[in-house]
Amino acid sequence: MSDLRVRPATRDDLEAIAEILVEGFADKFLAAFGRRMDCAHRIVFRTLSTEAEGHRLGGLFVADYGGRVVGTIALRRREDPEAPFWPATAILFEELGLLGGLRALFYLSLLDQPCRRNEAYISDVAVAAPMRRQGIGTALLLKAEEVARGWGKHAVVLDVSARNEPAIRLYRHLGYRQERRRTALLAGLLLGEACWLRLRKELPVRSDAP
Question: pTM for the whole thing?
Fold first, then answer.
């Protein structure tokens, strides 16, 4: 795919990113939003827009194919400043009401995982359904690894459901190895995903990294 490039996300990409994320993680959003799944795209878009206003899109990248956003990936460091709690929470309350917002906040918090200072954490890897199995996921991951090397990180890590066999095959093909297996009973009960794998890939650190 010669017209494919992975680049930093911009404000103009946020609608497409929200659509791809909601499609790619529909089961997680359905568990969190329940009968208000119709609000999912708007919530994700508004949350991303809030982050853009705070200039916090630095770790968000998109796969651009001929001028169209067809995939996305997020990368963060332990030392990155935490996003302000209230703006994203307020969006959930406005869209879902108090009880629905609290439910969604709790459900989505179950997916948050830490990383070490010498690692970069990969999340939200998603490709538009019609464009899957064409190397876009690989291109996104390789870009994330390149950025992590530039940050001086020794490894990239991610968490994936043990049931997501296609994703696990891709990660292992690219050199990711299982670091641990985690059983999260609460996540299993509420999100339908109790078993998670932490995968890690060691990176050669650039000599000119900061």
Answer: 0.91
